[in-house]
User: What shape does this take?
Amino acid sequence: MHRGGSTSSRTVKVFYKGHSSTDTEMRGITWTMVDLTNLDVVIGRGFTPTDDDIGTHNVIVGYDIVDNILGEGDPLGKEIRVDGVPYTVIGVGDRQGKTLGQSQDNWVAVPINTYLQTYGHNDALVIYVRAQGSAESMEKAEDETRVLMRALRHNRPGQPDDFEIQTNDTFMDVWKQFSSLFFDVIIGISSISLVVGGVVIMNIMLVSVTERTREIGVRKALGARQQDVLLQFLIESATMALVGGVIGILIGVALAKLVTVVVGFPATVQLWSVLMGLFMAGAVGVFFGVYPASKAARLDPVVALRAEL
Assistant: This one.
């Protein structure tokens, strides 16, 4: 079983009693699109086949229109003007929040025939088809849609489609390409940061060895072995790196929460990523601390004791 609907959109201005909005999305939709796009109408009603057939001047609005333009009171029955054309509010869609900082509630929707009568047929028309069943049903629906569209648009045999069909797989492929590129960039930046951080830690430890030469000589004179001195400086290097890792994780979590609040893009921090970050920080500290630690361990205690304070 297949269900379908169509929609078209453009940016408009909405007016109501001295209040107005800009950059509002105007959607022309068939009555079936309310269910196809999971548009929950929480106040009033959605469109009916009669709204489509007659081309009524009824409108469903998002909550930005209610909050910023219509004001207090029952929004149903109020008359707004969209690009100067009057419409009667019959429904309000559920709040959808923000995505990437863009409000998803700044919209109005009218019957598709009303939209076409007002703005003409030059805007792009998007047709939605929902196939119920298995993947085979989806492929069958795609084939049927392609045959129907080619017939309607008079595409000759062998002529390429002059329209585009997108499925869930299409969007998944785009997402995979984007996430793969994003992952590669993040890995590159992280690798450079780890190397730079490791070099900084190594330089700090080398300075520390130079400044504590006499301390090392005293420890060796009291019986400390090379392994003891080596372990001491490796622990100091790893601790320094872990402290930096903890600070970095706290900043990362704070930024993730900030993105969620400001942009509206959901962000979660997994425990495994925190543990992996701490492990990598400790590993970098140990790796880049080996040379300063081994240099300290190889110091001659006699020469070290002669070092000036």
In short: The chain is about 55% helix and 20% strand.
